[in-house]
Design goal:
By secondary structure, the chain is an alpha/beta fold. The protein has 2 domains: 242 residues, 3-Layer(aba) Sandwich (Aspartate Aminotransferase, domain 2); 123 residues, Aspartate Aminotransferase, domain 1. It contains 12 helices and 15 strands. A 7-stranded mixed β-sheet has the order 1-9-8-5-4-2-3, with helices on both faces. A 3-stranded antiparallel β-sheet has the order 7-6-13, with no helix packed on it. It has a 3-stranded antiparallel β-sheet with strand order 12-14-15. Strand 2, helix 4 and strand 3 form a beta-alpha-beta unit. The radius of gyration is 21 Å and the shape is globular.
Length: 378
Amino acid sequence: MIPYGKQTIDEDDIKKVVEVLRSDYLTTGPKINEFEKAFSDYVGSKYAVAVSNGTAALHLACLAAELKAGDELITSPMTFAASANCALYCGARPIFVDIKENGLIDESKIEEKITSQTKIIIPVHYMGLPCNLEKLKMIADKHNLMIIEDACHALGAKYNGSRIGNCNYSDMAIFSFHPVKHITTGEGGMITTNSTELYKRLLLLRTHGITNHPDNLIFKNKNNNPGYYEMQSLGYNYRITDIQCALGLSQLAKIESFVTKRRDIAKKYERALAALDEIETISENEGQFNSYHLFVIKTKDQETRFKLFNYLKNNGIVCQVHYLPVYFHPYYQKLGYEKSICPQAEKFYERIISIPIYPSLKEEEQDFIIKKIKEFFD
């Protein structure tokens, strides 16, 4: 079977993890700071905060932005549920804005959804294709809103020549290190920011809202009690381990080769499928550099998508559909979200298939995938 995505682990990755297993620290040790520093250097942000997974990163970013009950958060429905669930975790309400034909949030439709309760916009860099951050920042600045980029698909992507995650157009950006992403730590996530204030909040919230740093104490430790610490806010145990960060450091050193390989695979798909009238692919526009977490094709209709999906599956090719619009999920339906609120996203969903793309995909495997797609339409 050929999966739609998988991790790429080599002997050097394994060696780095074993070194930590033989060290004094398995968690809350030096590898976490090393990974954070290397990651912020790579994307070009001032700060990076490593956490247990991408969903935790979204939740902490919303908490650091002081999202609360009664607030609203604008995001895309064409995403994994976590991009909207992070609002619910804070007692806020997700508001969905429809997408463009490339799967990205439609900036022209955002302002009509903004109310006095709106606090945050979470654009999703779908597939690894960057959103129009310049337009989004103009909207956010006009309405005094925060931007948290959901960059789980977009490590290594660039917008107008600068790397996604540098937060030049946003307050924070979040990443995931799930095994199907560009680099993996098993599970894991990262938040980047250029704000010292947000950085301090994120560090506090990551570890139960507890600090023992003398400069940060509210009640000064006048009696010099040994081991004194304070819980200053309701935080969470969203820590990552040194074991994971050792793997992350090793993986991050290979990110450029991983992205290059993904882009090469994508170009080959685009060339090979261009002659098929029944298939559309999603291309980069000016200023976009796609890091291709996913390669998505669009069929002419839902029936064709269904038949092609099953044909590929029956030939040992595992595909996926990214995504069911978030508000289609039964939980969101129970909350009162109605279908048809984002018609473009719903049409998009009916036509899409994510076909295999990952650095260790062999050339003969890609040739086989292309052959089977062509055979289906022949």
